[in-house]
User: Fold these one by one.
Assistant:
Number 1:
Amino acid sequence: MIESRCGILCGECEYKEKMNCGGCVHITKPFWSDSCPVKDCCEGKSLEHCGLCGDFPCDLLNQFAYDKEQGDNGNRIEQCKEWATASVRRYACYCGLYCEHCAVKAKIEPAARVLYDEMKKAGFEDVINFIPGGDGFWPFLKSMAEDGLCLSCKEGSGNPGCAVRLCVQEKGVEMCAFCKEYPCNKFSSFLKATVGYTVLEQDNALLRDKGWDAWLELQAKRRAAGFTYSEGSREE
């Protein structure tokens, strides 16, 4: 579970109970200042934590991590690395697609969080039932903002009848790229009908040849560039 944007483990922080702090992931304004530049930067890029950023570890994070008074000698940076690896394996689909590049996670869920926060601050939670359809809309928006619409096929989301998913699960391999029979007919058929197929073969080859670290570095750079499978990079 991600506890903070910068890598601090909130469960071990003395201010959790002392200041009744829910952690930067769950609060709008930190108790120690009007804002936190690391939190603002991370959330401004729609990232779950700093370890998923293409610029990680940046000068700003290093400044906080090695601060003489409040720093932790880089422990939070190492924690972000662990979270990043865990996130990759969680959001790396059986076929090789990366959920973080889906428009739902990259655009719709962040937009839902902004809309939910703004509507809540404006008091809509108290009057939403008086608006036609509001009693159904508000729980949906809240769930989308707090929990998200989709996790990953490894977490049970997506099409339960996906031929690639069923094949990988049956063979007991982590992903298609690690299968001895890759690329097979099932994968080739899937490839022809998949958004993002132009990079999928390249990504799987990278994963097979150079491993998770190289694959993670590539995905982080894409996220920083605003890449989604449906639109490509914003810079293109």
Number 2:
Amino acid sequence: MAEVFNSFLSEPQAISVLIETNLIEHSFYLNKVNHGENLESDNFKWVISASPIFNRILGASFAPIEENLDDGIQKALNPFKMAQVPVTWLIGPSTKPPDLGQRLQRHGFVHRGYWKGMALDLNLLNPYPLHPPGLSVRRVTNLSGLETWLKIAGAGFQFPATLTRAYNSYFKNVSFTENSPWQLYIALLNGIPVSTCTLFLGSEAVGIYWTATVAGANRRGVASFLTWQLLQHAANQGYRMAVLHSTNAGHPMYQRLGFNDYCNIDIYTYDARPWLVQIKTKVAARLSHMIQANGRQNLL
């Protein structure tokens, strides 16, 4: 069995599947504990959240027939259109057809960039060479700790206060029990909370999420050491693979820890809330009028 598993992990496509599967499991778990709906069809998976910040469509697989694909995209969108809430469509390595992103843009989606899908064989995790002086790590075990964790994460990601409050409301139903699959951690520097990281214990891999550090503690090895400690913890629990979905900012740190790139997760968003559509329409009309009046060259 071990030889079969080792052979499986030697295939880049198989590791890409682990990366994407963990993202889907993570999305489903958080939505379930927060009383949202997780639905699956033959062609895609829905995360229909009680909050507009976490609606998602994932794992799409369509036949590349133009008319059927357009119908499928509209079917996926319908629950969010009816509820007048935004949604994020995540496109990973298993997505079919390969040009789905271009098709989504024809339906009003906007491409917001991508995450790097990365993975690390925990058998290859080396001892961390440096423990930053005054650094300690604490697991979040209650709502008060969650509030502190979100405050630090929000500052690290530079969230507006309204978004941090929305996440605080969204996460209030998560479990803090010892065996919870979603485990939140805070790093403290000389007793002051400065960094966050989260483990998600998936079915086949452990996922790293929500790694953030406040500005004053950057470039001091805090996030690296915190992440390494959580990886060591996952290895001690028997996990073989760790996966994550990195922004460009975090990519160098994960490379230093030994993670390798395997795929991209492209991010597309759709927002058809009536008030926003009205604003967009007015802005587009205003720009069109300016171009006609002044000439395109004057706007460049």
